[in-house]
Amino acid sequence: MNSFEKETNERLEAAVIKADTTKKVVLGAGVIDSVKSHFEQCFGSKPVQIIADVNTAKAAGPAAIQHIKSAGSNDGLEPFIFSDPYLHADYENVEQIEKLLSNNDAIAVAIGSGTMNDLVKLASHNCNKEYMVVATAASVDGYTAYGASINRNNFKQTFFCPAPVVVLGDLDIIDKAPKLMNAAGYADLIAKVPAGADWILADALGVEEIDHGAWDLVQGSLRKWVGDPAGVQKGEHKSLVRLMEGLIMSGLAMQKANSSRPASGAEHQFSHLWDNLNHTHNGQTPLHGLKVGIGSLASEALYKALLELEPEDFCSDIEKIKSYWPSWQETESLINNYFGDDVIMAQQVLAQSREKYITVEQLAQRLDRLKAGWSKLKLRLKDQLLGVENLQMALRHAGAASWPSDISIDIPMMRRSYRQAHLIRKRYTILDCVLQSGHWDNCIESLFGLDGFWGKGR
After folding, report:
1. CA distances for 178 relative to 52, 107, 206, 238, angstroms
2. Residue 29: which of 183, 173, 186 has the closest Cα?
3. Average pLDDT of each block of 10 consecutive residues along the chain (458 residues)?
4. Which domains does the chain have, with CATH numbers?
């Protein structure tokens, strides 16, 4: 482990102290050789149950699997390898892992990235067990996150379950990951910029207070972590170490806050929407980070429109609000129109939207607060955001999707997605702010008009 990796691990070690579940994060070249000692420090002599898929098992390699298998008292447990090369985070796969873990005292060691980690995370929780993950790519922030994003009954939802006790990232393995996976991780990390802006908004309006400890874990070094997108695209070692550090820190922040709020805002709602719609690109589900990157562009573009407003543009007059604010019955009808073909999905969306719906009187109070604090809030938001063009350039340099068509989303679908994404989650974001302010139509039109970000084209 070189000095650069050592300094990174020291920062991670300090951050783990603030985490709720994770006790050990080890990041460095060749650290797979020490997996036995790390496992036994946290789990003693319990048996190891390796869980991977054909792709992640190949990425780790036979030597790494043998190292992992030798940890603890294995008692003859053979690795469980999913044969599907396009494995999805579906609840049926969680149940398969549960069956594997339910009749023994083995500790699961997930080998993989987003999908594999989430499957093992939820299955282990359902079996009242802790687990460990060996990362194979710098592709997601979910390694250390509290919660698993799983598709159940055709609806992508977050199941709250503890993070892994141990995260081991061998950089010799991660450095060899497909460039597109690490580009997706970069997009997932830079998404913390607009996600942070959403949290600033929610905090300023009294909806959800900022947890400054969790905020600092993500935002404190975020600009440094995303500062070399071209290095990520080239697979440069230091750039990938910074990327991996940022992704792990984001997950630790979610542990501290016991919420995905430190790392997720409107941009993730776009991604979850497209998951729920079973959207594919070239016959396959696009990588999570690639979808989040496009969602980040959507969010930053909408912020650009919002930030053109002045305090006097926010009106709390009850009659004015009644002219644009839909009743709950109208909202319910809109949800059924968008999602009614899938009854279970429509019910899930209705529950999420109902939880955040507010009355005209409540909205008037919120708009009074927004108007009074807008001048200062506007400066904070401008300082937080990168600007949609700068964000797009960073995504392009990292090798990530930088235009909707890169993941087979056309402009009409992109436009429709703004309203749909707003409906599917209860979290307060830029989408809620624009809709509640009464400027939805104007702002959306400004984005898709001939001179708008989406209207001008790539």
Report:
1. 17, 28, 42, 17
2. 173
3. 85 88 93 92 93 94 88 79 92 96 93 94 96 94 87 85 94 92 97 98 98 96 97 93 95 92 97 94 94 98 98 96 97 96 92 97 98 98 98 98 98 98 97 98 96 90
4. 3-177 (3.40.50.1970), 188-211+260-448 (1.20.1090)
